[in-house]
Amino acid sequence: MSALQVPAAVLFDMDGLLVDTERLWTRAQEDLAAHLGGVFTAEIKAAIMGRGPDTALHLMLSLLGVHGSRFAEAARFVMGRIGELFAEPGAIVARPGAVELVGALAAQGVPLALVSSSARVLMDHVLGALGVAHFQVSVAGDEVVRGKPDPEPYLRASRLLAVPPTRCVVLEDSASGAAAGLAAGCVTVLVPSISQPPAGVPADAVVPSLAQITPAWLAALVDRRAPREG
Predict the structure, then answer these.
(1) CATH number listed for the domain at residues 9-21+93-228
(2) Total-model pTM
């Protein structure tokens, strides 16, 4: 481990990991389901969490039994509704330990990236609330060709930071996001945003809260994996 005991870079997911905005997405998705004549269930939520916006919406329509020809209508509805919800005063709330961990990493000069399946317009609301200066790089869902669980978003972030993926730590709250981090070759930590995450989600570590994570712990996690590489 390095003398500073910090990871080379940390790549944060956004919704449900850094900020408690998953509840806003749930409200928008519930409203969309009602608009389409269906009911948004916990099972549908679990199935679409962490996926890219188009993939998640196509899957949601399928699970609701709604014909794919209504995709454009559904996309306009849900993006309009989530935009309204994100813009409400006080709507963006940091999850426990998020501000402290970001601050601790930034104070030690660790490069940080925000990597989300959400659109840039929504990400900018969050960056404004958390402090855009903390993040050297941000990658939004509408800025990649293939969203999570594809590794493209995390590979792009590591490339922009000029840090090899194997020296980056990904922090994620969903199975889809964790799969993207691992596929990119990053050390991946799952911090579930729901009380009972799906069983068997692959990750290098599972931690119940960001409040339990320190820069030194992340650095040790990277170094423990390093001897197995190459």
Answers:
(1) 3.40.50.1000
(2) 0.85
